Amino acid sequence: MEESETLKILPPELLQTIFDIIYRETGSCATLEALSCANSYLCSIAQPYLLRNIVLHSHETNFTKTLYNSDRNLTLYNPASHFLQTLHASPHIALYIQVLTLPPAPLALNEHPPLYHWLDTDAALAQVFPLLVNLQRISIAGDQASTSCWPKHVQKLWDKTSISTREALANVFAADRLLEIDLTGIDSVPVSLLRSLSSLKRLSIANLDMTESKPDPLGSVSTYRHCLPLDDPITPQSAPGSSSLEYLHIEEIGRSSDLSVLSSPSFPFDLAQLHMLSFSPCGIDSMHNLSKHFGFLTNLRLCTANLDSKFDSLFQMQMKALAH
């Protein structure tokens, strides 16, 4: 009897439990990858674990550097388009995918003009997202560089991202299935893009554009502002079903000098149940208001790189006040 036939004698539930333990305890797919290579039966069981997290690498990966030999040809590579072909060839794997990561390409600080990135012209994500019915997390996190604070991201400009990509993101957000979003790779996220995320629990952004008066970057997308009350477009919290965030990370709160943006009526999320807040303040004059707005807060992480040293003593006083 072949080895794969011997394994089939074992209850599938038992093997899945073993794979669950391996996946949970190791925190890595290396062991599962090794098991999947043993035979086709173990491969079929390992697939849902190995395909939970998909990363659509840009042309900066070693694979695509080998595949495309010149800078001119690099602009032809679109990982979303290739991924779409894979989903059409093997539609069953779409059910396994829970996390989709779209890493922006790294940019040198002195580089003019910036490198091409596939999100600038992509039209495939609009077809990919509807296939991923179990998607729970989307990440567009910027490239990280070492700093004294949390990593500084090389960010994409939202307005430079293709209309199709922005529309695809708006539509998948409007579907309201996501539990976690990381958009720290985008310079400033329009607040209107986040309105319909009533199921969201974790949000990470670099900056939030709270401006409501200027034209929408996605004016052609019907789902973009669909949940706003028609008679009051500036008070989204009056709309039912606002999300109760558990984790919020904002690298910069615009150019504001306090935390008023988080308690503003136009902020689209309910922070009453927030457990962890991580942000970089541009000033500390309203730090004492934290305890009023975040009664359930158990973890506070601050990057003080933007604060002048003259605020050190005042900052310590404010932190003591927060502890009481």
Topology:
Layout: H1 3-7, H2 12-26, H3 30-36, H4 40-50, E1 53-55, H5 62-67, H6 71-74, H7 79-89, E2 99-101, H8 125-128, E3 137-139, E4 143-145, E5 152-154, H9 163-174, E6 180-183, E7 189-190, E8 202-205, E9 208-209, E10 243-244, E11 247-250, H10 260-263, E12 269-270, E13 276-279, H11 290-293, E14 299-302, H12 312-322
Parallel strand pairs: 1-2, 2-3, 3-6, 6-8, 7-9, 8-11, 10-12, 11-13, 13-14
Antiparallel strand pairs: 4-5
Helix pairs in contact: 3-4
Give a summary of the structure in a few sentences.
InterPro entries: LRR_dom_sf. The protein has helices spanning 3-7, 12-26, 30-36, 40-50, 62-67, 71-74, 79-89, 125-128, 163-174, 260-263, 290-293, 312-322; strands spanning 53-55, 99-101, 137-139, 143-145, 152-154, 180-183, 189-190, 202-205, 208-209, 243-244, 247-250, 269-270, 276-279, 299-302.
Task: Please characterize this protein's 3D structure.
This protein has helices at 3-7, 12-26, 30-36, 40-50, 62-67, 71-74, 79-89, 125-128, 163-174, 260-263, 290-293, 312-322; strands spanning 53-55, 99-101, 137-139, 143-145, 152-154, 180-183, 189-190, 202-205, 208-209, 243-244, 247-250, 269-270, 276-279, 299-302. It is α/β, with parallel strands linked by helices. It has two domains: 1-50, no CATH class; 51-322, no CATH class. Helix 3 (30-36) packs antiparallel against helix 4.
